[in-house]
TrEMBL record:
Cofactor binding mode and count: Binds 1 FAD per subunit.
Annotated organism of origin: Nonlabens spongiae
Protein name: Cryptochrome DASH
GO molecular function, one term: damaged DNA binding
GO biological process, one term: photoreactive repair
PROSITE patterns from the UniProt entry: PHR_CRY_ALPHA_BETA
Amino acid sequence: MKIMNLVWFRNDLRTKDNHSLKKACDADSPVMGVYFFDPRFYESRDFNLDVDIDLPFTRTGKYRAQFIIESVADLRRQLQEHNIPLLVFHDKPAKVLPDLVKEHDIKNIFLQKEWTKDEMDQEKDLGVELDKLDDKPKGHRTYDQFLYHPYDIPFESFQKIPKVFTEFRKKCEKQAQVRELVSIEAYKQDKLSVHKTEIPSLEDLGLESFEIDKRSAFPWEGGSKSAWNRLQHYFWETKQLQDYKKTRNGLIGTDYSSKFSAWLAQGCISAREIYHEVKKYEKEIKKNQDTYWLVFELIWRDFFKYVSLKHKEKIFNLGGILQKEYDWNSSHRELEKWINGETHEDFVNANMKEIAATGFMSNRGRQNVASYWSMHRKQDWRLGAAYFEHILIDYDVHSNYGNWMYNSGVGNDPRNRTFNIQSQADRYDSDHEYRDLWLEN
Ligand SMILES: Cc1cc2nc3c(=O)[nH]c(=O)nc-3n(C[C@H](O)[C@H](O)[C@H](O)COP(=O)(O)OP(=O)(O)OC[C@H]3O[C@@H](n4cnc5c(N)ncnc54)[C@H](O)[C@@H]3O)c2cc1C
């Protein structure tokens, strides 16, 4: 039997500009892929947060689960074009991979480098099992989720990354380059015979099926194909990129912002791919503050990844990275009222109803409901972050916990960022259209 290279896909569900896949294809052996629907991300209500109340929801809700199912199906189709099979399991990696390694004589495992607890736990468990094998495969980990690669940023170490975003951004913009894209376009191997595996359904994952709400600001499928269709529409067909900064604080509809977040979170498209398309657009169509601002936001995304690289587990602590002590409460009843949109703030309620019905909420809405929860009600911010982890279609550990800390006074900005919800509603929903849309029934 021929030695095999395995790509373990996690949050990098694409074939274009995927460094792990590229490295595997460049090595001199056939390639196969694997993806795990790890039950601990679906069934468990334990968010590893050490909070005072039992949380009434699981780690991954139906919207993101469906999006992942679609993304994995799309990845499988893309890989087929190169005759690379993708095996899919609804099980823990540590339970499946050792046998797979033996069965296919796998010598190399290529994967995206991660550092947060869940992903490290997966790897640790697996390491223990692989250590039992006589011939342990070699792991090849690559940072592939950034705009600015960790080896290119102008800071001596992660510990030297500035506290303040502006300083981080300015230095990166001046001294770092976004890398060029990699491709496996020309790669095609002989067909391999592997046993067939099924992608689980929502039901298999213990979740109910649902219809997309007609008011949804995010009505799309998971997968690279859909991500690129969206980019094509937003950049090239409707040219809305050139108005992005002016519209990004909107609340209603599909087009007030790019809506790239869910695809970015699963790695269906890379931040570098979006960056290079913006540059192309600026060259061919128009360059202005708005086109720049999309890149500016992608740098925010990077920044939160660097915050978690620097502070590791502290991003899950009550005191956050500032290690600030406030008097936090943990009320089950308050949580229920907030989730159900039954607070005394109609702007908060409308946003909470939107996220419950669709898995998506605008950035403006997220800032307001987070501020309401942690700063107005003085509730443990991690309970709110955990609900977002459950419900968001675009949940990303770094962006979620980073933004929650930031909005709760324990993050990278020590200023008090409490929002005046009423004046926010007056400013961003002056005609009540948004609240009417979500509160009418
Ligand atoms: C409390 C709270 C929780 C959040 N949780 C998440 C999360 O789990 N996953 C997530 O992707 N974003 C999160 N965000 C950031 C932001 O709200 C979403 O990225 C954005 O609303 C997604 O819509 P979009 O793709 O149309 O964004 P656009 O406005 O079109 O921005 C383009 C891209 O830039 C990045 N971006 C924009 N704003 C931010 C930001 N504040 N922080 C980090 N990246 C940003 C995203 O990748 C986004 O897709 C959170 C914000 C708050 C206030």
